[in-house]
Structures are given as structure tokens and as C-alpha cells.
Amino acid sequence: MQTLEEFSALADCELVLRLDGQEWTADLIEAKPLVKHGEAEAREPFSLVFKTPVTGLPQASYELIAPGHPPTLLFLVPIGGDDSSSHLQAIFN
């Protein structure tokens, strides 16, 4: 998976994030295009935001497990959440 369209198709799927042998369920809650800067970019930039039912997940490279797809390595950064969840963002540019 490398495009916004490919990831957007996962919005209603059961997703899993894996890090250091631990796994958490995740929902893709946002998939949106970003402003393109320059003509040399190979693909349109985009952002993904995942919500997990746990708090305090670190910035790290997680494996995204999605039905029908091989595991995909994503660098995710915590951007918020609440008392019972974390929101993690990936940027593709």
C-alpha cells in the first residue's frame, strides 16, 4: 500500500498495529491529501490518522496489519487522543 486511495479503502477494516511483539487494534479515522510542494514529488502527499484503544503509545515504526494485504511498516507519531485512546499519524510525501 502506497497511495491515499489504497489506504482509504481500509477505513472500514479491522486493522492491527504491531510494535515489539505487542499488538493493538486500530481504526483509520482520517485519510486526507496534503498540499504538494514542487513538481518532483513522485506521488501526491497525504496524511493518515489511526485511533487505538490504548493511551501512551510511542513514536515508532509500527507494522500495519490489514486484511488481504502484506504487513506494511509505518512511522507513526502520537498527535493526541483522550483518557482511553491514542491518535497516531503517518505522513507520506
How would you characterize this protein structure?
The structure is a single chain. The chain is mainly beta. It is built from one helix and six strands. The protein has one helix at residues 4-8, and strands at 15-19, 22-33, 46-52, 60-65, 72-82, 85-92. Strands 1-2-3-6-5-4 form a six-stranded antiparallel beta barrel. Strand 1 and strand 2 (22-33) form a beta hairpin.
What is the element layout, followed by pairings?
Layout: H1 4-8, E1 15-19, E2 22-33, E3 46-52, E4 60-65, E5 72-82, E6 85-92
Antiparallel strand pairs: 1-2, 1-4, 2-3, 3-6, 4-5, 5-6
Number of helices: 1
Tell me the Rg in angstroms.
Answer: 13 Å
Give the helix/strand class: mainly beta
Question: Considering DSSP H and I runs of 4 or more, what fraction of the residues is helical?
Answer: under 10%
Tell me what portion of residues adopts beta-strand conformation: over 45%
Record the strand order, biggest sheet. 1-2-3-6-5-4
| End-to-end C-alpha gap | 14 Å
Order of helices and strands: HEEEEEE
